[in-house]
Amino acid sequence: MKLIHRLATFTLFLLLAGCSEEPRKAEKKEAEKPPAPVGGRFALYQIYPMARGWAADIQPVKLVSINLSEVKYEAGKAAAWQVTWISPGRNSTRNYTYSVVESAGNLHKGVFQGNEESGIRAASNPFLLAALKTETDEVYATALKKSAEYVKKNPDKPVTFLLELNKRFPNPSWRVVWGDSVGTSNYSIFVDASTGAYLETMR
Asked: What own/partner pairs with CB < 8 Å and gap ≥ 24 does 53-59 have?
């Protein structure tokens, strides 16, 4: 009888332990953090493996940030990024995106591959991936030091990041743009993508 009693107690203990696991799992699901924006360098390296699967000789030409209303803004980061790559061997261009959420405009969570376009624009200036040594939160901090007066007058302007190889500078440069795009902005700062040094102010 003692053995039967012990087995019954043990079985009851297992049942109670199993029941207690379910609320814990539910608690973990409820505690999931909302999607957070990421830096441009981080996004580029998330995209790189898939892009290299398309062509082994890929070279980055442009990286641009995409702000999304669904994701809370954090200085120096963005909810989505788009990279333009070229493949000299294929004589082709292809865009890839990295997003932390699904969104309009054909943005998908994670890495997404766009259509391959035949030809490479004459204006394309590819840069070495290894030359990108700075993250956009550092770049933004540098730009902000030179822009205190402008930001004070325009506190609600969105910030966009653009990485390219500009012929005026030896290294690829980040352009920190106050506004939705370079074309609509009246103020931006260039920062060296390799050294993190301030380069120039454009008004």
From this structure: 54/85, 54/87, 54/94, 54/113, 54/116, 55/85, 55/87, 55/89, 55/90, 55/92, 56/89, 57/87, 57/88, 57/89, 57/90, 58/85, 58/86, 58/87, 59/85, 59/86, 59/87, 59/88, 59/126, 59/127
Task: Give the pLDDT confidence of 25-67 residue by residue, as tens digits.
Answer: 555 566 678 999 999 999 999 999 999 999 999 999 999 999 9
Cα 163 from Cα 79, distance rounded (Å)? 16
Taking the CB of residue 146, how many other CB atoms lie within 10 A of it?
14
Token representation of residue 70: 């669904």
Alpha-carbon dihedral of residues 69, 73, 79, 83, nearest 10 degrees? 110
pTM comes to: 0.83
Give, for 140, the enclosing helix (H) or strand (E).
helix 136-145
Within a 13 Å sphere around the CA of 126, how many CA atoms are in the beta-carbon half?
Answer: 17
pLDDT in tens, 71-92: 999 999 999 999 999 999 999 9
Whether 164 and 176 have beta carbons less than 8 Å apart is answered as no
Q: Which two tokens stand for residue 71?
A: 């994701």
